[in-house]
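User: I'm putting together a teaching handout on how multi-component assemblies are represented. Below are the sequence lines for each component of a complex, exactly as they appear in our records. Could you produce the 3D structure of the whole assembly as structure tokens, so the students can see both representations side by side? Please keep the chain order the same as the input.
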Amino acid sequence: MKRLMVVAVLGLLVVGIGIGAVSQPLKIGITKIVEHPALDAVQQGVIDALTAAGYETDVHVEYIISSAQGDLAVASTIAQNFQAQNVDLVVAIATDTAIAAAEVFRGTDTPVIYSAVTDPVQAAKLVPSATDPSGNENITGVSDMIPVAAHLRLLKDLSPDITRIGIVYNAGEANSAILTAMAEAAAPDLGLTIVTATADSTANVPLAAQSLVGRVDAYYVTTDNTVVSAIDSVLAASEEARVPFLMADPTSLAQATLAAGFNYYDLGLTTGDIVIQVLSGTKPNEIPVTYVTGGQVHLNLDAAGRIDFEFPAAIVEQAASLLFGGVVWEQQAE
Amino acid sequence: MAALWIHAFEQGLAYGIAALGVFLTYRILRFPDLTVDGSFVTGAAIASILLVRYGFDPFSVLVLAFVAGGIAGLITGLLNTRLGITSLLAGVLTMIMLYSINLRIMGRPNLSLLRVDTATRIIKAVWSPLGVFSVLVFIALLTIAIKFLLDAFLRTELGFALRATGDSEAMITAQGVNIRTMKVLGLVLSNGLVALSGALVAQYSGFADVGMGLGMIVTGLAAVIIGGTLIRSSRVGLMTLSVLVGSLIYRVAVILALRYGYVVGFQASDLKLITALLVILALVVPYLRERRMRKVSAC
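Assistant: Of course. Below is the structure of the complete assembly, with chains in the same order as your input.
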């Protein structure tokens, strides 16, 4: 009896291996610089988009997911490992990992799809042009550039008293430096001035945020990984100063007075759509850089109440969601 | 898989130059120097900005990076020997200063080298007959040349004085050697090597980033200690060789962890754990074998 079972199991195994060999799943390497809620959300978005399009995990597609755990040296090694394992496509999340992958897969025909790279053209030099993809070679992807000027305009619309905008950021983060420079460039035309405070580590964020109390009429934080990790301290400082705090990531609405922009899961879904396009035969040099729009506004009425701030009616009407009494209320578009 | 081993050796040797720098302070001078987390980036930053902005030759920037790193070492050395700041704090202070200085040098936190001709890219094109080995041969020649230069230096009278400074300050002072000068010299050379390694790694990986030096002292020390445990010798040539071997082992561990970790069910977040476990394995196996040998001979 026992022997019979062994034979049966072995038989099943052989059949199983046979099926596996018939339809070899596609191999996709996903590389990210560090474990981080936003970057993990991008990764999940990519996988969910592929699953929704019929690419079932471990059946049609196999993922090799690697994180450099903050060690930039490992970013190159991860890309080289993907190459050695003959992956069919690489998804590179964040600027450093994207450049490392681009360097390793240069001149090959393995497509590299980057995501969450703020400025893939001027700064990262991943692709030569934002609009014309013909020089892309094997690389294309999604930028997480946020509409900084639109956010500043939103702050200006909150109250005519708002003229000085405080930005807390880490000058060592490529994405943050670009976004802050963009804010400084856009501010004069809107009649705003930007006051910055830098924090080189999460531990220094509270101090940087505190340093702006009394010197600014509103706080603004972009997608800065360092500051986002200590975002509660920025909210605390803004409440001490009794000024509103705009966060450029809706997932952090509970820790801000208001939030605008897209969330990183949607960015992952968009990246996944590009992966699907490439898997179905479109060449990366036919796909220009994708910029995510998502200009929705989300208001935290609880936080506004704590500083006795009242949102203008027009902005409340526009808002996609309201946080009130600890609950998020979605507003239906008319 | 063969290609992956080649890459492991490329990186092991490229980072091995930085490990030689750490060896110089930690082992020879017995000075725990934390400047390296900053000077590694300084080398990468100087090389990258000269390549991107000023169109310098990618090989000469390696030399200029060495000089810049030397200046960083000089600052730590002066803080320690002239201003009486303890060795650890002097290194930490310079490292902190370098963070801002590196940002100034690059003008931004991250510089992409994807659109310039880097040393590795030129080597790939010019030494194309060597195929996949071209970059490895280049990095190996450079690293081995540096190793032998360092060996030769440590055998000169000045080199002896440097080694003696780490062994016994009292004895070497009695010989009429100025310890302070020796310490500064060691720090200059050490950080020069670390910065050169940074310049090479930046060109190899295609970018410089202000965060790329994070933990460099830890991996450097790991290489020195792994190598020193496996090859026990007080001969200069074998000591520097052991550092390179240690650096190689560390990179091979990373690659093995990446390549086979997920096969045996590890997650992406387990990378550092597996890397460290592999290093422990590399250290423990020779140790246990030695102990068994000793037991056998005792019988």
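A couple of points students might notice: The longest helix of chain A spans residues 2-22. The CA atoms of residues 65 and 138 of chain A lie 20 Å apart.
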